[in-house]
Amino acid sequence: MPEQLTTEQQALVARAHQFAHEELLPRHGEPASSARPAIIAASRAAGLFTMTQPRAFGGTAASALELTLVRDTLAASNPPHLDAVFGPGPGVLANVGEPLRSTHLAPLLAGSKRSGFAFTEPDDAPAPTRARIEGDMLVIEGQKSYVTGGADAAFLSALVQVADRGPALVVIDTHLPGVTLTRRFTSLDGSHHAAFRFEQVRVPTAHLIGAPGEGLPRAMRQIGDVRLLIAAQCVGLMRWVLDHLTAHLRAPDRSGRPRGEKEGVRLRYGELRIQAFAARSMLYRTARLADAGENVVNEAMACKVFATETVGRLVDTAIQLEGGHALTDDHPLSILYRQVRSLRLAEGGTDVLRLNVARGKLDLDKGLI
């Protein structure tokens, strides 16, 4: 559990808590354009910004538990501009050699280039994105959608099917001829995504990340890391919801009695605390397993499913117990409701991941209880 921490880990939690209250919460309502530079500078000074970056590029390469501690602690304050705290990680470009190390990975980590992860085809795509090899070039055709931040990306790490070779991850510069940004759109939670079309896009074979046939496992490792990130943020948000709801239930109603005296209210509130306790426990166990070198693909899926479903129930029930004014657009619970709803689909929808967890045990004999 998070209580079983070393002195250094306790200091890290205290630093993250201080950062949330001194650097993030005071910036409620401030536009991202002005808030982000200041937050990034403060995060660098606090030693948080480089936690997601490899040591070879000046980062600290924090452990899964350390990242979980910070993400949980920051989210527990429900602050704005949370996405500005950590620097860009290497993602699927981790451990690439030249030329990609110099041309794309280094600028990505330095912040001079932005990337997008192009994994999903739109529902109406006639076929998966594909490529054929012509000499030292790949010729790519297809479509991708739900590329988070893709409209501002200098390059995409895209999953493509290479003819006769299998799935591969390929770096595609967005300025290349044949790359078309077909749509920029916003989701319910306010995040921005993009859709692309590729028509006879010629990319050097040196832009392959690994060998053809290795693309899907590499992509899934990246997605697995993000699933644990999502779970940690959800757990922190659960703590914020419970603190908010606790204060509401301790306050008097019109009769002068605490709102939380009613048995029906207490039953629902107690169930929320039980679910949050379970979600936080499984998250920290999984982070420790990851740091011990265990394969936590199935455990990360379980954490992501349980945490996203649970935070959704917590926010929904908190709105129900607080009443109609919690539905107003500027109420923090209403804002949070929109934010967390999308997480049940991000990096794999809930039912898809449930099936994958079952497959992990029944077909592959993977996964712990």
Quick synopsis:
This protein has 369 residues and is of the alpha+beta class.
Description:
This protein is α+β, with helices and mostly antiparallel strands and 369 residues long. The protein has 3 domains: 7-88, Butyryl-Coa Dehydrogenase, subunit A, domain 1 (Orthogonal Bundle); 97-209, Butyryl-CoA Dehydrogenase, subunit A, domain 2 (Beta Barrel); 216-362, Butyryl-CoA Dehydrogenase, subunit A, domain 3 (Up-down Bundle). It is 46% helix and 16% strand. It has helices at 7-24, 32-46, 64-75, 100-110, 215-250, 263-291, 297-322, 332-341, 350-362, and strands at 115-118, 130-134, 137-148, 155-162, 166-173, 179-186, 192-204, 208-209. Strands 1, 2, 3, 4, 5, 6, 7 and 8 form an 8-stranded mixed beta sheet that branches. β6 (179-186) and β7 form a beta hairpin. α1 packs antiparallel against α2 (32-46). The longest helix is centred in the middle third of the chain and has 36 residues, at 215-250. The two termini are 16 Å apart.
